[in-house]
């Protein structure tokens, strides 16, 4: 679990390379973030996705995170 988005993104990218699955940085409670496998996050997920390795061309961060 992370409080720094840069560290969380680095963990998601490393997990993607290591496991071969896409990962997302999600915000859980009180600003805590974690790298979570993207395939388990459905449309009805209550977790807020802040970053995804699926669309990681140049580090695409979702605009609503600003």
Task: Note down, in words, how this protein is organized.
The protein has one domain (5-55). The chain is globular and about 30 Å long. Strands 2-1-3 form a three-stranded antiparallel sheet, covered by helices on one side. With 66 residues, the protein is α+β, with helices and mostly antiparallel strands. It is built from one helix and three strands; from the N terminus they run αβββ. β1 and β2 form a beta hairpin. The chain has one helix at 5-19, and strands spanning 23-27, 33-37, 48-52.
Tags for this entry?
3-stranded antiparallel beta sheet; 66 residues; alpha+beta
What's a concise summary of this model?
The protein is α+β, with helices and mostly antiparallel strands and 66 residues long.
The N- and C-terminal alpha carbons lie at a distance of 20 Å
Number of DSSP-assigned strands: 3
Number of individual domains:
1
Gross geometry: globular
Order of helices and strands: HEEE
Strand fraction equals 15-25%
List the helices and strands and how they pair.
Blueprint: H1 5-19, E1 23-27, E2 33-37, E3 48-52
Antiparallel strand pairs: 1-2, 1-3
């Amino acid at each position: 679990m992370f409080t720094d988005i840069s560290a969380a993104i680095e963990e998601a990218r490393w997990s993607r390379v290591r496991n071969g699955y896409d990962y997302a940085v999600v915000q859980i409670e009180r600003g805590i973030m974690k790298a979570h496998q993207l395939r388990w996050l459905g449309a009805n997920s209550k977790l807020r996705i802040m970053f995804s390795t699926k669309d990681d061309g140049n580090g695409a961060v979702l605009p609503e995170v600003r």
